[in-house]
């Protein structure tokens, strides 16, 4: 009988040990979550900058390929630019052809859909400011609207701004 009692050792953790682990885990999570939120916001901002930079380059190459004027403008709807003269591009942007040079997206067809790109509204923690008119690329790839600066920023503390410049020559750069 004594031999059975010797082999019967306790296994597992006590309730006190479990509570200590839970408290330590809670403290670590409380410290990590704010940094993680900043990381997510910074990644969102970086993604928007990359998408905008890519869409500006695509607009320039499309203007050369199609031998037609192409616009990058703040989105008013899924098929039309915002013509209110705003510098707030938070509602997204369009890349569309403007062959008749009326500063508006041309009507698309099945063979030639227009707009070429529709970018949805930005996340509420991001801001995008740009020119109060569309950025235009002529058939030669030169900017028909002159130099333009687009700035992507954030509303969280410690947010930095990212700038995209479009030169009058059509060159697109991120300083």
Q: Which structural class best describes the helix and strand composition?
A: alpha+beta
CATH architecture: 3-Layer(bab) Sandwich
* N- and C-termini, Cα separation: 82 Å
| Shape label | elongated
Main sheet characteristics:
4 strands, antiparallel
Q: Helix share of residues?
A: 25-40%
- The CATH topology is given as minor pseudopilin epsh fold
Low-pLDDT windows of residues? none
CATH top level class name: Alpha Beta
Mean pLDDT, to the nearest integer, reads: 89
Output the strand order for the largest sheet. Answer: 3-2-1-5
What would CATH call the homologous superfamily?
Answer: minor pseudopilin epsh domain
Please compute the radius of gyration using only Cα atoms: 27 Å
Assess the beta-strand content as a share of residues: 15-25%
- Helix count from the secondary structure assignment: 2
Tell me the number of strands: 8
Number of domains: 1
Spell the H/E element sequence: HHEEEEEEEE
């Amino acid at each position: 009988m004594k031999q059975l009692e010797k082999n019967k050792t306790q296994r597992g953790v006590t309730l006190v040990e479990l509570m200590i682990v839970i408290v330590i885990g809670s403290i670590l999570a409380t410290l990590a979550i704010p940094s993680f939120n900043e990381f997510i916001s910074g990644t969102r901002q970086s993604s928007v900058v990359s998408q905008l930079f890519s869409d500006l380059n695509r607009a320039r190459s499309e203007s050369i390929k199609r031998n037609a004027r192409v616009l990058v403008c703040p989105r008013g709807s899924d098929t039309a630019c915002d013509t209110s003269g705003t510098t707030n591009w938070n509602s997204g942007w369009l890349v569309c052809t403007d062959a008749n040079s009326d500063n508006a997206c041309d009507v698309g067809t099945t063979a030639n859909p227009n707009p070429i790109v529709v970018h949805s509204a930005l996340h509420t923690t991001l801001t995008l400011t740009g020119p109060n008119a569309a950025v235009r690329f002529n058939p030669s790839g030169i900017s028909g609207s002159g130099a333009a600066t687009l700035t992507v920023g954030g509303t969280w503390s410690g947010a930095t701004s990212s700038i995209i410049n479009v030169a009058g020559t059509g060159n697109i750069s991120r300083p």
